[in-house]
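U., I forgot to send this yesterday:
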Amino acid sequence: MAVPAGSYSIYASPGAEEWTFYVNSVHERWGVPINAEVRATELGSFTRPSSTIDDMVETLDISFASHGAMMGHLVLLWENTKVEIPIHMAGMQH
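Result:
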């Protein structure tokens, strides 16, 4: 999913085998229900597979793992689950 430069919020819907992520143009929201007003400002959505990790992660951990110039993964760890979202600059191959 191509996203123009800017500030966004990302909402996640965890599933057993994959998570669905929603990219929203309004970044100054926090902790609100995902209702029709919120959904109206979405840029789009995508899914990413989840994997099981051995160590329990009590609190949601979000980090960035670099994979070279202008590329990397946004890494989410939660409980025994890991989800990676590839991120790269426009025109770069991941």
